[in-house]
Amino acid sequence: MVDLSQYLPILIFLVIALGLSTLFVFLPMATARLTGVYNPTAEKLSEYECGFPAFEDARSQFDVKFYLVAISFIIFDLEAAFLFPWAVSLGVTGWVGWTGMMIFLGILAIGLAYEWKIGALDWD
Amino acid sequence: MIQLFAFYMFATIVILAAVMVILARNPVHSVLWLILAFFNAAGLMVLVGAEFVAVLLVIVYVGAVAVLFLFVVMMLDIDVASMRAGFVRNAPLGFAVALVLLAEMVLGFGAYRAGGLALGTPAAPSQALPGLSNIQNVGALLYTRYVFLFEMAGLILLVAMIGAIVLTHRDRRGSAARQDIARQIGRKPVDATVMTRPKVGEGVEL
Questions:
Q1: Residues of chain B with pLDDT under 50
Q2: ipTM surpassing 0.95
Q3: Around Cβ A122, how many Cβ atoms within 10 Å?
Q4: Residues of chain B neighbouring A85 (CB-CB closer than 8 A)
């Protein structure tokens, strides 16, 4: 069973971070609302002097090449994640585990070689 | 006591975030709520003792899958108004899917309560090895008993990689804009410059 008391500092950090971020958001709002005068007009709320209304949505379609990069990242991220338990349990798994991981790395190396050879790693 | 508090905090936030994933009008906001749900699910995994699964949730799901979701959402360029237009038309289909899911959950719980499944009980053969940490236990099983499934996972990853390349890659090797570094480095002054001594009044023949 896991010794959960080791995670107590992380939990304390989480609670403090949650409290602080809530404070940072709501304290200025409450202070401004309670101390200042609030009577907005259309001119006050408009973009003035340094800016103009947005012409279009900030989200626009971008190149599908980013998708290929993201997929490659996921695959090699998973490969690295599989390496962690393999590395710490080699004393138990022995040569069977070592060979299995080498085959796994070989399979993914084939994919990487194909990706490189076909030019999918080049950006132009 | 503190574990109970942590459990209720994580569970409440994960349920609220999951609800917000559905209710958020902007798909990008949905993905951000999904990331919050992943983080809190990782906290729940730590509480039940599955430390490695918790780390995987943060590294793989938050680090990679959520980024991919964001890419896909950005790439689709969804028009929210046109999506909402089909709500009434698609509602029966949505209710049908929800009904099927509900029936499956009821059946599954019924089968589990009836004792039809032996998963996760001490009778199942995957007992934890004593004296080893959580991640060592995972490795000890994954790379011996389940090594075949592990290699299958490798093949599935290979298929995913090749599929993504086939779907998205366009070969630009023919186009003029492509940079060939080997040719650039291999270029010599002799190939690039010509010394001529033209006569006065005649030009240079290139």
A1: none
A2: no
A3: 13
A4: 52, 135-136, 138-139, 142-143
